[in-house]
Amino acid sequence: MDAGQTLIISSQLVLGAAATFLAIFLWPRIRDAAWMLIIIGTIVAYIEIVYSILKYFGIGDEELFQVGSVPVFSFVLPSLRMILFIAAFAVMVKRQSRP
Asked: With the CA atoms of 45, 48, 50 and 54 taken in that order, what torsion angle do they form, in degrees rounded to the nearest 10?
């Protein structure tokens, strides 16, 4: 692994950890559904980062959970993050469209 890859991996881990820490710190103070979905989406995004780094180092086993030839975690984690963000934005749009 060269210096560029080390920089990318470490920046993803540090920035993702900071966002996740702040999201978890904010969690007990927020009771709004849209914000809760964004917080959970942020945590899922960090899980995705950690999983991709483990996969890069050969620690994550993609063949453990597969549906056909598709690794479940590689499909579910990015999709779940986007679904949570879409749901949060839909809640906000619905709230703004009320008279």
From this structure: -170
Partnered with residue 71 across adjacent β-strands are 66
- The length of the chain in residues reads 99
Distance CA 8, CA 16 (A): 12
| pLDDT tens sequence across 5-64 | 889 999 999 999 999 999 999 988 888 999 999 999 999 999 999 988 888 888 877 777
**Is-contact 35 88, C-beta < 8 A?**
yes
Q: Exposed, middle or buried by CB within 10 Å (0-12, 13-18, 19+), for 63?
A: exposed
Decide: 42 and 85 in contact? Cβ < 8 Å: no
Cα angle, residue 21 at apex, residues 19 and 23 outer, rounded to 5°? 70
Q: Encoding tokens for residue 96?
A: 């703004």
- What kind and span of H or E run contains 71? strand 70-71
